[in-house]
């Protein structure tokens, strides 16, 4: 029996429609061969940073620096031909959030190594997880001495510990200022307590009398009662360990009260960020700070990193960014040398690290109570006309120091 042409065309159309639908579903749902290959060849590296909360400005500088290093490393062939995939987690500046971020990176994301650790309290918390899970962690900023004093073999640190921050400050005080008395103010955090303790110990060696030593809670809006006590003590030197907003407010309110020591010195952290001068205004003029890195440092790539960061992000980098930038290079170097891509093999390669970075030479050594700690010199910087200038040691100075401070 003959079928009508119309019925035949309808059935043919239905068959062809079904064929194309199935074929399109297969193509659109299945990952392309190149995507599958890329995922299979990616080496996952985790990073834990404060991207929100009070420390977000520091986290942003470090995140941008990690990303800049990532583009350079992958652009140069990655790790033996394999690209690094960077997985960045926000710790919000809280240890418990940092621990959760570490667990996620290790157990869910299968990161083979992890960098970061901005605040000391978070860095210590995530270091404990790294040791427990046996995944190497390279701390690039958290400075509390105890982080590398636990005999943890999966924890490394490229930045100096807090006790070594004031080294350049101390030599400047000895050779130039020669103060007799000092007031010491510090934020009640792991970083603040560790830094203030080490400065007090150094002050005793210098014959410097601490006439006032007092901690404070971060985020206060009125430091004048505390600063009135400082003014009454009449110290030659006021040394402060503070994060950004506290640092700016302390200096501004000190000027308002007419507090006029021979010099104000910050213990790094908030005193070296571009935002310090923006928030402190004219009060920032002449303020000194300890610093861990300056673009004039004699390290390969230091000035290039500084210039590229400024061009890319429209603002100046400082030591926090240089630490993060170099941290990824240290991890990539270890990945290249590891006998296989397992956490244990990467840990062994990190332990054998001996390289130059934009932040300085990196070689993990043991001394005093510390293990797997990098050792580097420090610097003294001063705010002059809205710019952060390196002033000590003299051979690295971008400008002569201003002292006495008007």
Describe this structure in words.
The chain is globular and about 65 Å long. The chain starts with a helix and ends in a 14-residue tail after the last strand. Helix 12 crosses helix 13. Residues 1-40 have low confidence and may be disordered. It has helices spanning 5-29, 33-41, 56-75, 95-108, 120-133, 167-177, 190-205, 224-233, 244-256, 274-280, 302-313, 319-337, 343-351, and strands spanning 43-49, 84-90, 113-116, 137-139, 155-157, 181-187, 209-216, 237-241, 263-266, 288-291, 355-357, 360-362, 365-367, 370-373, 379-384, 387-392. It is built from 13 helices and 16 strands. The chain is of the alpha/beta class and 406 residues long. Helix 7 links the parallel strand 6 (181-187) and strand 7.
Summarize the structure.
44% of the residues lie in helices and 19% in strands.
Features:
406 residues, alpha/beta, Rossmann fold, 2 domains, seven-stranded mixed β-sheet, five-stranded parallel β-sheet, 13 helices, 16 strands, disordered N terminus
Strand content: 15-25%
CATH class of the largest domain: Alpha Beta
Provide the domain count.
2
Q: What spatial form do the alpha-carbon principal axes imply?
A: globular
Protein structure class: alpha/beta
Counted beta strands = 16
**C-alpha Rg, in Å?**
26 Å
Examine the coordinates and then state which fold CATH places here, giving the name of the CATH topology of the largest domain: Rossmann fold
Distance between the termini: 111 Å
Alpha plus pi helix count: 13
Give a quick account of the main beta sheet: strands, pairing sense, barrel closure: 7 strands, mixed
- Round the mean pLDDT to the nearest integer and report it: 89
Low-confidence residue ranges: 1-40
Following the backbone from N to C, one meets helices and strands in this order, namely HHEHEHEHEEHEHEHEHEHEHHHEEEEEE
Going by CATH, what is the homologous superfamily of the largest domain?
Response regulator
Kindly report the spatial arrangement of strands forming the biggest sheet.
Answer: 7-6-8-9-10-15-16
CATH-level-2 architecture of the largest domain: 3-Layer(aba) Sandwich
Helix fraction by DSSP (H/I, runs of at least 4): 40-55%
